UniProtKB/TrEMBL annotation, chains A, B:
Topology within the bilayer: Multi-pass membrane protein
Cited NCBIfam families: sulP
Keyword entries, A-Z: Membrane, Transmembrane, Transmembrane helix
Native source species: Methylophaga sulfidovorans
Protein name per the record: Sulfate permease, SulP family
Compartment(s) of residence: Membrane
CDD domains reported in the protein's UniProt record: STAS_SulP_like_sulfate_transporter (cd07042)
UniProt cross-references to InterPro entries, sorted A to Z: SLC26A/SulP_dom, SLC26A/SulP_fam, STAS_dom, STAS_dom_sf
Gene Ontology process terms (BP): transmembrane transport
Amino acid sequence: MPINKLKQITSKLPLNKSLVSYDWQTFNSDLFAGIITAILLIPQGMAYALLAGLPVQVGIYTSLLPALMYVLFGTSRVLSVGPVSIAAIMVASALSSPEIKALGSSTQNAMILALEGGLILTIMSAFRMGSLVHFISQPVLSGFTSGAALIILFSQFPNMMGIKIGSCTSITECLNNAQSSLNIFDMGIGLLALATLLLMGAPLSKLLVNLGTQQTIRTGITKSAPLLSVIIGTILVTAYSLDTTHSVEIVGHIPQGLPAIGVGFLSTSYDHFLALLPSAFFISLIAYVESVAIAKVMASIRSEKIDTNQELTALGASNLAASISGGMPVAGGFSRTMVNYSAGAQTQIAMLIAVAVISLVLVSISQSLQSIPKAALASIIIVAVYPLVKLGSVVNVWKQDRSDGISQLITLLGVLILGIEEGIILGVIVTIFCYLRRTGKPHIAVVGRIHDTEHYRNIRRHKVETWDNLLLIRIDENITFANINFISEFIEAESRETDAKNIVLIFSSVSYIDTTAILYLKELINSLKHKGVVLHLAEVKGPVIDKLEKIDFLKDLLPGQVFFQTTDAVKCFAPNINEA
Amino acid sequence: MPINKLKQITSKLPLNKSLVSYDWQTFNSDLFAGIITAILLIPQGMAYALLAGLPVQVGIYTSLLPALMYVLFGTSRVLSVGPVSIAAIMVASALSSPEIKALGSSTQNAMILALEGGLILTIMSAFRMGSLVHFISQPVLSGFTSGAALIILFSQFPNMMGIKIGSCTSITECLNNAQSSLNIFDMGIGLLALATLLLMGAPLSKLLVNLGTQQTIRTGITKSAPLLSVIIGTILVTAYSLDTTHSVEIVGHIPQGLPAIGVGFLSTSYDHFLALLPSAFFISLIAYVESVAIAKVMASIRSEKIDTNQELTALGASNLAASISGGMPVAGGFSRTMVNYSAGAQTQIAMLIAVAVISLVLVSISQSLQSIPKAALASIIIVAVYPLVKLGSVVNVWKQDRSDGISQLITLLGVLILGIEEGIILGVIVTIFCYLRRTGKPHIAVVGRIHDTEHYRNIRRHKVETWDNLLLIRIDENITFANINFISEFIEAESRETDAKNIVLIFSSVSYIDTTAILYLKELINSLKHKGVVLHLAEVKGPVIDKLEKIDFLKDLLPGQVFFQTTDAVKCFAPNINEA
């Protein structure tokens, strides 16, 4: 029966789990959180659409259907999916190239990016390829985020200050341009919005804490700052007709009503889809990585569990929804999620309510949005994005781990100098290169026995027993093409320094050995045999011994043996073991 | 004093070591081996020059100065450096592109390739970057060699058979072309040479063994096969004027005397050098990998030691020498080296003698080389290259190791379908991708104690003790961005399946932990804390504990502890330990 089937399907959706124990108290929390989130989402959505170079309504549309899709399919109960700053600047970068501009309107291009991103995420989900994104390491992600945030700040600062720098080749020329284009009214509104946002942030929050205000109420008040700043700006514009009398830039006409659902944007050439594909790939990858990172932080706070593969499906569906409802690529946003959570959202119902509120605004009072000054929106972006610039992190990571520091710095510089996508690619390549270089020089230790025990430790770090006729070498990594040369040379060098006729390789850390490594090991065995030295193995793990048996390696090893324990080898070759 | 200085420098050259204990007996061996090698090198050098699309004398020139350079700088006592088949086909592939052809004559292009390759190898040597080539894994090298050898066979088969297939689009058209162009005299000479080579190979060798002939004499006789096959061909051509009467293709004019030394080929554009650089990079890389592989095999047989970085210098010098003496890129060749060795070469003096013999031929009887039929040279190439095609190896490697098998097969197909350089790049990318995928799923085991011991083993493979309140998890690999997600999910999944309130991660195999991994571990610690589970570490290695202390990780771990031994953790959390 189809209804049973439907029940079966819906029972598997993550949302269903939240609703099993839903009650009025939870609903009250969700209702409040939903309204607060909507208050943030409207101005933020508009701001990010401007950042992406799109009409402001695209940002609002993107806060509707995609958010619903995430509510249906996502595994985080509080993640808020919609337009986000990093995805927006990536969209801006993709849409700014002349070849892309020639192919279609920016709105159509944004919809195609969302569609392709959605498909890529869905395919990755179907093939369970979510682990691919782990190649974007934390330092690369962090360097990338700082770089992208800096680009956003550079792009929005002139908007907030009411200046147009245009194209200039020298600093003097840029400054001249800035001065001649400066609109003191834009600047006033921008700085007023900035002041509102900053004062209603930490200082107001501190004051409210001192007054003993409840946390959710506090969030409600402080997070209304963006709304308040655009209201102030809008009132000023409307009261003095600043847009017509003093050329203050405003958002302009916004179509009334909900976005049309449709696939009309698909009627274009094959080349058009192809041209946007690389950008869609990077946008969706970064959107996924950031969403999962935020979802995980929230899940850790709320003791929930994120299913990373289900997140791929959910984000894929959200992006597909964005594409057919006139939206732009989406991701889980940090600030919107934090608002939702700290306003007391208990379940995804809060996001449903936020969507309902935004829809209500669109069908009723969308006209009143058209006088919002762009400078105020620029201030909202700057305040939202500023915390993402973490240059101190570059220094910290550099101190902790040189190669991670290099990856982070190169990604950051790559983003700033070469471009956003180029920066990620460069960062990933550098990370993989450093990784291969490091695994190419694995940790190997000559070990000896700690007196009166069966423990073997590095002779350089511990006071241990060693024996004349026996050299114990512990290899601390899987043996592959990347490191076998280093390992062979290490063993040969150690062998030359002693008279030991038996070398035991301790394989306790070796879980895998590849074809190249086996070939080199055979060469090593032969080369040592010529010098009268026999190679043995000890503590070989199950999967490794299975493989070595399968390819008859143990015959090549003869007269070398495989010892279960290192101690067995010591008993065999070091006669004084019995005295211990 | 300059002479003392010179002595100081020469005393460091590898050659000097061989000469310390040189005597007449060794010289006799070297003399014989040198003559035999020269007999092989002349026809083989000519053949490989033809394979590369160059005038035959280039192949002979390349056997002189480059070989001397290797004698001076190389660390292998028997490696014979000169024109080789794989480098020759790579040169042919590089020179065949119309853009390259437009820039200069093929001889000039070959000299530039040798120059650039020599510089690349020298730079790699100076920066001790020899380890870079280890990213060309054995399966990739093997797949590449088989693929390149197949291309050589396809290219030389028509030459041996006296047919010209030209450009054809269907099999019928190709066959028609073949039939109409067939020259029965070329074919006869080619097949006669083939028969000579095959009969003088294994069958003759077997016969001589049965007759009790000495090994060096046997080598002398069997390895003269190429010389004999060209002599037969040349006699037939000369006796019946086959070149003029029946259009049999012969080598043609060869300038008398030694090659001119000079740098005239350098007078060209910057773009010309740039255009050849990528090919030079791949040729020199493969030349180096193959030379070192052969040198290592020989060193293992002769109980010698190869210094891989010195080999870079030596091959760099050889290629530079090739470029200024009218030569093509060089490498250590397997067949020429085996001839040298099995003819009884004791030191590099054998190669000096071979060079002297070849020079003598060039200054005295080079005219007599001009009637050598090309079909006979094609047969020499085919017989030399055929053993390099090892398709069985693809099957074997596939059975042993799936990802190595995939790399090898993709490299082989890449070389055949996309091209020689593209094949290597593809192979390296696939290898690195498989490597990252594999290290992304490291071996992790829940372990328990083997009764009455302090040994801990995988609970799935051994009969071990476990405890209700303690979960022991051994991580068998370094923890990095590539695998931390898998590791966290494994630990969380195992934690959900037990009531244990203490989880001990055994770090005995962990030598390195990166920034991403530390961040995820902190998240994991917090997430477990919410469930009342405490994470501990045990058997943490020196470098890892140093790093964790440096970044205050141990504070984040609290109340989790770091245990020196796993047994210490068991004593702490499993009270029944004392009964054991």
